[in-house]
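Batch manifest, entry 17 of 40.
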Amino acid sequence: MILAVDAGGTSTRAAVVDASGRCLGYGTAGGGNPKSAGYDRAVSAVFTAAETAVARVPRPVTLSLALVAMAGAGQTMSRRAIAERLTELGLRGEVKIEGDLLAMFHSGTDQQSGCVLVSGTGCVAARIADSRLELVSDGAGWLLGDAGSGYWIGHAVARAVVASLDGRGPDTKLTALMLESLQLERTGERIHGRPQVLLDLIEALYRLQPVELARFAPLAFEAGDSVAAGIVESAASAMAETLGAVRGEESEGPVVIGGSVAAAVLGAEPLLGAPLRAVLRDAEVIHVSDGLVGAAVLGLRRAGIPVDAIVFQRLHESVARSREEKLKTPAAPA
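Output type: structure tokens
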């Protein structure tokens, strides 16, 4: 058996998998990304998710390897610290840490080469060759990059609403949607020459952490006016540029798409998503929700176990069943 862990920014998922690709146990925990959760909480999240997964295996567990996928390949994480915790759960082999991009790609395909684009709160693309990251573009964070991400779209929405209320931009349905989401009302009052609601909005927005602007990204897909459409089209162009930086004219293999924002852009009106579709060309496009299956694929292969189409399909199906079973299981009483 091996342990596969997908440590994300908001949640961590773990699965105990055997050599045939069957998921024997599944567990979840809070965010396990050391950049956002902090070192100690990230280690605890990995352990908690793994502990739950191991507890669901109906027989004694001996883990020959643990593979943990996380952003930046866990540059600040100590494999030794994780291994010490996982030894309590039956780990007798080594801990390997791989990038979340690599896991996301392998969650979509059993092939070992292709490209992956992930756009959620942030945005990043990579070219994969022989199950290794060959080229990566963006993922530089809210200050320096993440073009086309949820943060980027939410920031554009906020700027458009502020400009509209300030008289510098056109009227947009985004204004009413954003004010409603922040429980602000337009009263018609003005203070020092500015609308009271604009001052209230500016204060509310500056109370947020920059990445929290991503919460307003869905408004761009909901509003349905020209201002919102322009934001979505610009996001598609930005994602296309990021993906194009890693996907050359002669790139082969599938393109795996992860993240709610990328899926929303591709699901928008054809003209709005056109820039991104143009870069995809005739590639096989595969959508995935997370990197857990990919972490299992990588773990099996790093343990010397081949993963063909049959094993890959078994992994997908058994992980999906395990997730459903966990959702149906009542939470233990406090």
